[in-house]
Design a protein that fits this description.
By secondary structure, this protein is α+β, with helices and mostly antiparallel strands. The protein folds into 2 domains: 84 residues, Arc Repressor Mutant, subunit A (Orthogonal Bundle); 132 residues, Muramoyl-pentapeptide Carboxypeptidase, domain 2 (2-Layer Sandwich), CATH 3.30.1380. Helix content is 52%, strand content 16%. The chain contains 8 helices and 7 strands. A hairpin with a 2-residue loop joins strand 4 and strand 5. Helix 2 packs across helix 4 and helix 7 runs antiparallel to helix 8. It starts with a helix and ends with a strand.
């Protein structure tokens, strides 16, 4: 057995152990589905547990590589609190599995196209804006509040597989992506997939936030949005 295969089995074992306890699985499920990182107090209230018991579950999930923690910077005075979000590279158990066939098809199709990166970026932007517009019509009117729009964007990024992290910061929200969309696929050696991915991120962000972001920075699969 190769080293990579052995490491994969070890990861599977640790994941199974971490999620084998019902309460711990429910905590992980809540964190994975939440558009924002969760704190110990919120989780303790949600599951009627003592904060120390929640911390033990969170430690086990973090040791298994399923979640990551960070200190959240408050907008005013006070100590920062520790919050928890899905790992950028967790074991593949999430609901984005339904998008994988489409992502694989896109990766192979873009590798067969001419290598004009600007055209690929523009194509990604236009396609993402059109796709988002159709989803808006199907899902009803989009919220006007910029924060609510940002939460929708975070959920959409997670659905596609970018594994976003959304953190409250200085009275606003900062969203970053933590994973390449074509992870495990066949990204082109000449950067064509990265160009398409950059366009998709720009188009999705523009269409969902409708110009209400304080700043947007995109480079390849790395997005940072402040609302």
């Amino acid at each position: 057995m190769g080293r990579a295969a052995a490491e994969g089995l070890d990861r599977l074992y640790e994941t199974a152990r971490a999620l084998g306890e019902e309460t711990r699985f429910r905590i992980y499920r809540r964190i994975w589905l939440s558009p924002l990182p969760e704190g110990v107090a919120e989780l303790a209230a949600a599951f009627s547990l003592h904060p120390n018991a929640v911390r033990q579950h969170l430690t086990r999930l973090e040791q298994a590589g399923l979640i990551v923690s960070a200190l959240e910077r408050p907008g005013g005075a006070g100590r920062p609190r520790r919050v928890y979000a899905p790992s950028p590279e967790p074991f593949e158990l999430g609901p984005d599995a339904a998008m994988r066939p489409l992502v694989s098809l896109m990766a192979e199709a873009v590798d067969a196209l001419p290598g004009d990166r600007r055209k690929l970026t523009r194509f990604g932007e236009d396609w993402a804006r059109s796709w988002t517009s159709k989803r808006k019509r199907g899902n009803g009117r989009a919220p006007r509040d910029p924060r609510a729009r940002a939460e929708l964007l975070s959920r959409e990024l997670a659905r596609w597989g970018w594994r976003p992290s959304a953190i409250n910061e200085n009275g606003g929200m900062r969203i970053t992506t933590g994973r390449c969309l074509f992870h495990g696929g066949a990204p082109g050696e000449n950067g064509r997939s990265c160009s398409l991915e950059e366009g998709l991120l720009r188009g999705l962000t523009e269409a969902m936030l409708n110009g209400r972001a304080a700043s947007v920075q995109v480079r390849g699969c790395r997005l940072e949005v402040r609302v």
